[in-house]
Amino acid sequence: MLKFTGQGTAHTCSGVTRRDFLQVGTLGAMGLSLPQYLEAKDQGLVDKKNDNRSAIMIFNLGAPSQLDTFDMKPDAPAEIRGPFKPIDTASPDINISEILPLHAKVADKFSLVRSCYHNAAAVHDAGWQMMQTGRLFTGGVNTPHIGSVVDYLRGRKTDLPANVVLPETMGRGGGNLPNGQAGGFLGKAHDPFALMADPSKPNFKVPDMLPPKEIGTARLERRKKIRDVVDNTIDYFESTEDAKLLNGNFHSAYRLMTSKEAREAFDLAKEPNKVRERYGMNRFGQCCLLARRLVESGVRFVTINTFLTVFNEVTWDIHGSKPFTSIEGMKNIVAPMYDQAYSALIEDLYDRGMLDETLVCNVAEFGRTPKVNPAGGRDHWPQCFTTYFAGGGVQGGRVVGSSDPIGGVPADHPVSPGDLAATVYHSLGFDLHTVLPGPSGRPFPLVDVGKHEIRELF
Asked: PANTHER family from the xrefs (predicted)?
């Protein structure tokens, strides 16, 4: 790869790091897609009235137990219903677990889908693919993340990237499969911008907004001089097929680093302490606050990973024994953190008049087994689980679909990952008949035939 140094020279090097990408002038997450967006508009594939809508996808990595959170079965046997009781909420149609009392207060603003399922293997990575792209990767075809599709079709609105992942992309899931948080066949240019930092830390800084050591801040502020360095250094490269991508991403990287607007959007110190504390002074809480700030500043799609891996971290993956989490751990550690941050995000968006223009969807890779296992936990169960949506045109306080008496399979209105993806696209104003340029240039449908938005939500 090419690398620029402080002396304005270029040379090849082995091994690619995030800093190397920045030094080359390319950040994979920062592709510009205005031509595609304008073309889509001309073809009537973008609903202009929803053009300004954004989305926040909260991915509950590890997979919450539907029976202990949003699909309680109080009349089932003890080994099915678990230790928690249902409570009433702000919606007369919704009851949820007692471990989510702050969710109960905002239940009039979100709606549950209790009949989700998928047919992939009960491994985390497969579920990550399905739930973030609408498809399982087969035949060597990696489908792009929903946010990457939004980036491709609409591009950025401001100096900030169109598609962001907080706090970083998913780690290991145990299956050694792609996790679905990438541009897939749309290319690296549409990978999300990953923060790669913990916003709850006192010294929080965005790594890709820091200048490379070889190029001082003063030179970064002199954009023309930087452009001159590029022109003088890689004239020979600009005749190649990759030149336009390199050139565009070079400008995108430096646009981010030199943008006052971008710096301010990522600067959580501008928030009053009481607001930060309302979200929770932890990684997930501050990611939720940062997501609100980014959407407010023009980012189109933000994915928040509640956790980074299911190994040696207290997560929703409640198998009951180490290195996983127990039901008690979920009750005492995971649920309070999650409950606080989510309710703060919904209330904040609502109070700021942003909720109708911001879809907040909460998804996970699967559900948990109806029966508690011998270790006192629940295992993987893709046959039935709950997701939920707020804002972005969704009517709150509703329940769509239901599960059987033990929460094991959908009893009515089964909803697949493709339907969930279609719901997000519909909220954002995309025609579901849109066709993407797939592998080898073959047309690839935005969603598969027969998949459609969950109409009862709107």
From this structure: BLL7424 PROTEIN (PTHR43737), DUF1501 DOMAIN-CONTAINING PROTEIN (PTHR43737:SF1)
* Strand pairing report for 301-305 and 54-59: parallel
Total number of domains in the chain: 1
Any domain includes 279: yes
Task: Tell me the pLDDT tens digit for each residue of 113-142.
Answer: 999 999 999 999 999 999 999 999 999 999
3 has pLDDT over 90: no
Residue 147 CB contacts under 8 Å (≥ 6 apart), including other chains = 55, 57, 162, 163, 164, 165, 192, 300, 301, 302, 303
3-state SS, one letter per residue, for the chain: CEEECCCCCEEECCCCCHHHHHHHCCCCCCCCCHHHHHHHHHCCCECHHHCCCEEEEEECCCCCCHHHCCCCCCCCCHHHHCCCCEEECCCCCCEEECCCHHHHHCCCCEEEEEEECCCCCCCHHHHHHHHHHCCCCECCECCCCHHHHHHHHHCCCCCCCCEEEECCCCCCCCCCCCCCCCCHHHCHHHCCEECCCCCCCCCCCCHHHCCCCCCCHHHHCCHHHHHHHHHHHCCCHHHCCCHHHHHHHHHHHHHHHHCHHHHHHHCHHHCCHHHHHHHCCCHHHHHHHHHHHHHHCCCCEEEEECCCCCCCCCCCCCCCCCCCCCHHHHHHHHHHHHHHHHHHHHHHHHHCCCHHHEEEEEECCCEECCCCCCCCCCCEECCCEEEEEECCCCCCCCEECEECCCCCCEEECCECHHHHHHHHHHHHCECCCCEEECHHHCEEECCCCCCCCCHHHC
User: Is there a domain that residue 436 lies in?
Assistant: yes
Compute the radius of gyration of the chain from its Cα atoms: 22
Among residues 149, 156, 147, 96, the alpha carbon closest in space to that of 335 is found at 96
Contact, 115 vs 102, CB < 8 A? no
Instruction: Name the pLDDT band for 221 (thresholds 50, 70, 90).
Output: low
What pTM was estimated for this model as a whole? 0.84
Residue 235 within any structural domain of the chain: no
CATH code where residue 147 lies: 3.40.720.10
The parent domain of residue 146 ranges over 34-203+272-457
* Residue 387 is assigned to a structural domain of this protein: yes
